[in-house]
Amino acid sequence: MTIQWFPGHMTRAKRQIQEKLKLIDIAIELLDARVPLSSRNPMVDDILQGKPRLIVLNKSDLADPRATEQWMAYFAHEGHECVAVDSSTGTRVNEIPIKAKEILHEKIAKQIAKGMNPRAVRGLIVGIPNVGKSTLINRLAGRNIAATGDKPGVTKGQQWIKVGTEMELLDTPGILWPKFEDQLVGYRLAMTGAIREQILNIDDIAFFAVRELAGRYWKVLKERYELDNAPSDPEDNEQIVQVMEDIGRKRGCLMGGGRVDLEKASGIILRDLRAGKLGRITLEAPYDDMPAREV
Ligand code: GDP
């Protein structure tokens, strides 16, 4: 389902969102709580043209709660309201209409002062593919609305979905492209499953994952795969391959001659990581001195 983002697609996606901005009061920028920067569109400020905005950190059930708190503080510092939710179960999604009203309170107060009956706040969800836009729309709507899948070039008739009595959402989200020119971003998105293995090699993604985890989250790897030897230098590629081989051996991924089947081991590592089996992990810290999670 990964989209090829050609320049024409990007222009069209931007134009489609900007058309929708005319209809709405507030944009809901959806980010992945595990990779809040990598899941951000590089031009989002330009695209949203100063529209009031609520940042929603989705998949917070899979993210390190302490890191999520830091990210919320970070976005608040940048002047944005922010909530962290889990759209798959609905945890805290009810805060979205409440926060949206708070952000728009001046506009609403002016309407009331003019004797107008304020109408429901109108919102649009925007975000990169796989960040959970359709899941969140369905949650907020309380029923199945949006088809999962992304076709940036395709428009269909848009409808307003009621979210309680005080908010309405456009049923089709705004689809943004990721910062794919940055290799680090590509690997981080691939680790979360947002970019499929057809584009990046599974061994490479798993290697990158183990290298990222071997530092701050070593204890998590150690406990899950009963590893003994921590790499003395998580930047040393050979030591990281060694860790992958240790994991493969523990999981019985062996080929002839006792060699480790790295591709099989890679599949296990990525499946565990994406399913949250390694615990709640955030791959990006707003501040470099973020302490390690205690396990
Ligand atoms: P979209 O491309 O942005 O519309 O993303 P989808 O709504 O299709 O979601 C992509 C995947 O992420 C699906 O497998 C969802 O079940 C999953 N997902 C969405 N939100 C959450 C969440 O908050 N927590 C977890 N664990 N998974 C989620």
Mean pLDDT, nearest integer?
90
Strand content: 5-15%
Distance between the termini: 35 Å
At the fold tier of CATH, the topology name of the largest domain is Rossmann fold
Low-pLDDT stretches are none
Bound molecules: guanosine-5'-diphosphate
Q: Which geometry do the CA atoms define?
A: elongated
| CATH homologous superfamily identity of the largest domain | P-loop containing nucleotide triphosphate hydrolases
**Whole-number total of structural domains:** 2
Structural class: alpha/beta
Written as H for each helix and E for each strand, in order along the chain, the element string is HEHEHEHHEHEEEHHHHH
Helix content: 40-55%
How many strand elements? 7
Radius of gyration: 21 Å
Total count of helical runs of at least 4 residues: 11
Task: Describe the largest sheet.
Answer: 7 strands, mixed
Family: Belongs to the TRAFAC class YlqF/YawG GTPase family. MTG1 subfamily.
Organism: Paenibacillus nanensis
GO biological process, one term: translation
Binding site for GTP: 58-61, 130-135, 174
Report on this model:
Belongs to the TRAFAC class YlqF/YawG GTPase family. MTG1 subfamily. GTP binds at residues 58-61, 130-135, 174. The chain has 295 residues and is of the alpha/beta class. It has 2 domains: 9-170, Rossmann fold, CATH 3.40.50; 201-275, Conserved Hypothetical Protein Ylqf, Chain: A, domain 2. 41% of the residues lie in helices and 12% in strands. It contains 11 helices and 7 strands. Strands 1, 2, 3, 4, 5, 6 and 7 form a 7-stranded mixed β-sheet that branches. Helix 8 crosses helix 10 (237-250) and helix 10 packs across helix 11. The model has no long low-confidence stretch (mean pLDDT 90). The chain binds guanosine-5'-diphosphate. The site of guanosine-5'-diphosphate has 17 residues, from helix 6.
